[in-house]
Description:
Layout: H1 4-11, E1 56-60, H2 83-101, E2 105-110, H3 118-132, E3 136-141, H4 156-170, E4 176-179, H5 189-204, E5 214-216, H6 218-221, H7 225-228, E6 237-243, H8 251-262, H9 265-268, E7 271-277, H10 295-314, E8 317-324, E9 333-336, E10 343-346, H11 349-358
Helix pairs in contact: 2-3, 8-10, 10-11
Amino acid sequence: xxxxxxxxxxxxxxxxxxxxxxxxxxxxxxxxxxxxxxxxxxxxxxxxxxxxxxxxxxxxxxxxxxxxxxxxxxxxxxxxxxxxxxxxxxxxxxxxxxxxxxxxxxxxxxxxxxxxxxxxxxxxxxxxxxxxxxxxxxxxxxxxxxxxxxxxxxxxxxxxxxxxxxxxxxxxxxxxxxxxxxxxxxxxxxxxxxxxxxxxxxxxxxxxxxxxxxxxxxxxxxxxxxxxxxxxxxxxxxxxxxxxxxxxxxxxxxxxxxxxxxxxxxxxxxxxxxxxxxxxxxxxxxxxxxxxxxxxxxxxxxxxxxxxxxxxxxxxxxxxxxxxxxxxxxxxxxxxxxxxxxxxxxxxxxxxxxxxxxxxxxxxxxxxxx
Length: 370
């Protein structure tokens, strides 16, 4: 993501028709709602039972956004950091995510520039630290920036080599999850489903169970129903994205729009909303009324109140964008200090309260339900 301007530029398109790709890649809490086991097409064995509500998370992102033609470097890290430095910094960050936000999951970006290179020797310290702290880790592939950003895998051979390394490294760690591609907007639905199917087939054969895979919704992850309907992808989680600047609605309008993207309850029982966000550093009270008369503020309040209510009702997983990204107005936390004195500070307590509501905490909504 983003400042509002950079995310807005790429996301507004996501509200329109998904760009068609030229070719498919030839490469290969409240009561829990769980997906019903079913036979996976072509595999002849039951799919695992899924529980998206276990994911109470945030994204930790590169200040430049995660679309970069180079290594991803998370906020608070430097390419000059060795493994020990990255590990210790990540340990402090995820401990703050737990203490300040109550999170148990962190979503991290990966790309070929970051894996299998000298930076990987250091960067894997972030994954290792999060796991040693008991966090679930979702590793999602992000394509490059500028001309490279077309909604398709940049270099299939490099992409596969990256995933070979990642799946081999974390094959036996059930707390590490894999998201083959973030926002595959360059593919048609059929093309993306084929790319994802090829990925699942390749790594299932290498010991990665389907219940450790997050298959992105089509487009900008903006609809998951087509992925849920694909028999070849049965047993995987699906990831949805949703943002307030995709439209302007009242509460009923936001609910109708969001639910139209989620498909039926069987699909919801597989769905993790692994990006959603609103401005957090601008002083908005998300527990308040959406009748201030300031259009952007009121739309953001209505959006977050509605989305967190739907997440809770439909028992989705929820991973906020971002928990930490330097100079991002959507960031729920801000860096304070550095080195051994590094801490985080919450930017908006009302936003945290609504995130907790989405995660299933409490009995009474922290806002007046409209």
